[in-house]
Amino acid sequence: MNAIHLARVSKRFGSHLAVSDLSLDVPAGSVYGFIGPNGSGKTTTLRMILHILLPDAGHIEVFGDPRTDVTRDQIGYLPEERGLYKKMKVRRLLRYYGELKGKPRKFIDDEIGRWIDQMSLGAWLDRPIETLSKGMAQKVQFIAAIVSRPKLLILDEPFSGLDPVNADVLRDAILAVRRQGTTILFSTHDMNVAERMCDRIFMIFRGRKVLDGTLDEIQSAYGSDTVRVKIDGSPAVLDALPGVVSVTDFGQLQEVRVAGDPQELLAMLVTRARVRHFEVTRPSLHDIFVRIAKPTPEELAHEAAHA
Amino acid sequence: MHRVLTVARSEFSSAVRSRGFLIGIMIMPLLFGAAVLLQRVVERQANSSLRRVGVVDDTGQLFRPLAAAAEAWNRGKRDIGPDVLDGPRFAVEQIAPQPDRQALRLTLSERVRKQELFAFVELPPGLLDTSGSARIRYYSAAPAFRELPDWLQRAILKEVVSRRFIQANVSPMVVASLLKPVGTDEFGLATRETDGHVREAQELDRVRTVGIPVAFMFVLFLVVVMTTPQLMNSVLEEKMSRISEVLLGSVHPFELMLGKLLASTAVSAVMTTVYLTGGGWAANRWGYLDVLDPLMIVWFVVFLLLSVLMYGSFFIAIGAACSDLKDAQNLMGPAMMLLMVPALTWTLVARAPQSAFAVGASLFPPATPFLMLLRLALPERPPSWQVILGMLLTLVATMAVVWAAGRIVRTGLLMQGKGVTVGEMWRWIRA
Predict the structure, then answer these.
(1) Residue A307 clears pLDDT 60, i.e. is over it
(2) pTM for the structure as a whole
(3) pLDDT in tens, A221-279
(4) How many CA atoms lie within 13 A of B217 on its CB side?
(5) B317 pairs with which residues across the strands?
(6) Residue-wise DSSP of B299-339
(7) Inter-axis angle of helices A105-118 and A90-100, to 10 degrees?
(8) Is residue A34 scored above 80 in pLDDT?
(9) B250·A101 Cβ contact <8 A
(10) Within chain B, what is the greatest distance between any pair of CA atoms?
């Protein structure tokens, strides 16, 4: 069964087509990564799933039900732009968000107790939000999204602004939510997180779906045209080699996209530099993202003309 | 519906738990009362100070009676009605006439400027002539202060007329008794009871006939002013703190708005209960309990509900449309102006409740709840058709405002970081 089913969904704001003819199936119980550059239609799509916006065309179902105004009680939502009532105490706020999803007080209190302990926020339960640190407030916001024990959890950039310690706590919490059977759809710009945490990844670009599949499927589709190289001397030598499409310099390592046979590249490279590392690999999600979303020379010229 | 109630419960709880609510509910009427009291005290203080007037008496006969008249006035003696120890006090100073009148006027003008005198007056000799057309000349730097020239004119006229009667061999005593003013006792209207018995008109009691109706209107006004603008702050805070989108993931914008309106109505009900209970206690204490007519309470509740819904929706829409406080304050102007209509016009309505102006103003929906309530509380009640028409117009206007606000909230809550124009809001409503 699919947790989310989008069939040929479109949404327009004035003359801007935010989402175009988008179809997507998110299997129940999966962790689905939702990637795409800013302004590509991610938030609009999430808002349509949540019934905050209505599609101009197409069809949306959540757990097989097309009534998204009804099904949103089964959805927890952590938007990218976060906010909490500063004067409200943590317990009251969590109860409020839980009750808005139609859950009884007893159920909500049990969930609050469980998550507050897991997030080590017990001492702050009866304090106003304004006394919390930013990290603590983000954890409270996450609990607010899951306090109703939703069947579907939508997270928009859940790790942004978190230090590594709090990011680990949140990651563990997301995995714990997944273990209880919740489907997780999360939007992120962090390709490493998407690669490591998601069963499937979906990319939207200019309102259209451009990627959809497991990481393995996506990488396979882009072939083994990537080589990781470590050489002595300047990496500029790589640019001059025939068959090199692009070079991404990471300082200690260069990632090279090759048009022809990587073995030929290696043969040419050893004649010009001392090679310390040469690894034929598949392109990373980051690389695939950049290949898709990189502005064309015409777009760059247009941007420069209007700057 | 559970979402509407959940929002309402949370909003109500946040509102009444705050210290601001408790302080506001006490302070606002006190501030209101203090403002009225202060105005009275300042007025009395400013009015009761001694005004010294220089009198250049060219008749040689009028200064002495004028001084006596000033003394009587300052003791509270009035031409008509009982003695009143209130109002301005006057002192007269005799100024010897000089041949060079221009120089004398300049000297006296300088004394006025130095505030040694408040004004000066010239009484030409012709004033005492029965056929004369001589006029009193009054010089002052404060022409808006009418009490002094009016008193001078009355006092001098009284003396001059008395002297004219003597010249005409008519006894001033006789004239005084013939011209003795007639007093007036004011009554309301007689009514016929349901059993056919005619109930005599009651002597007019200003507290009962004006004070209490005005109090009814101002309690309603106070409650609406204290509760509905808070809705704008609440929505704006949610929007600026990015809470709106979290809420919209759970509730429809219209449900959110209805929840807030419901909470505001509940807060208004609490305040009304407090004020009417206090008013009831005061009415009982001073023997006016009978004026708390149950029908008036019903009207009060109806108009309270309509005005909170109408103005509440208005303010919610402003909060949803704006992205910061500055934008919101700019848009608040028109709403506050509408709210001020009854505060600025109630005196005209109270003086002539059946006038075309009063009828028109009380049928203007933003003012209807206040002005129609005032008219209903006054002794001369409006005809039923006006009350029903006013209520229907307000109901339609309220429904229209709630609907339009719902459309604005739906779009506005998700708009961030940009100011909004009235034209854009109109487009959102029509979309």
Answers:
(1) no
(2) 0.73
(3) 777 788 889 988 888 888 888 888 888 888 888 888 888 888 888 888 888 888 899 98
(4) 28
(5) none
(6) HHHHHHHHHHHHHHHHHHHHHHH-SSHHHHHHHHHHHHHHH
(7) 130
(8) yes
(9) yes
(10) 98
Question: What is the per-residue pLDDT for B393?
Answer: 93
Chain A, chain B: beta-carbon pairs less than 8 Å apart: 62
pLDDT at A143: 93
ipTM strictly over 0.90? no
A45, A99, A155, A187: which to substitute to probe chain B, counting the most B Cβ within 10 Å? A99
CA distance B386 to B194: 23
Q: Which CATH fold topology does A224-281 show? A: Alpha-Beta Plaits (3.30.70)
Chain B residues 121-140 with a CB less than 8 Å from chain A: none
CATH class in words for B47-178: alpha beta
Amino acid B299 reads: W
* Of residues B242, B252, B414, nearest to A69 (C-beta): B252
* DSSP β-ladder status, A57-62 and A2-13: antiparallel
Averaged pLDDT, B348-352: 86
Tell me if A2-219 shares its fold with A224-281. Answer: no
Classify domain A2-219 by CATH architecture.
Answer: 3-Layer(aba) Sandwich (3.40)
| B78 has pLDDT over 80 | no
Can you tell me the mean pLDDT for B233-251?
Answer: 84
Measured over the CA atoms of residue B320, residue B321, residue B325 and residue B329, the dihedral's sign is negative
B418 touches chain A (CB under 8 A): no
At residue B132, the pLDDT reads 65
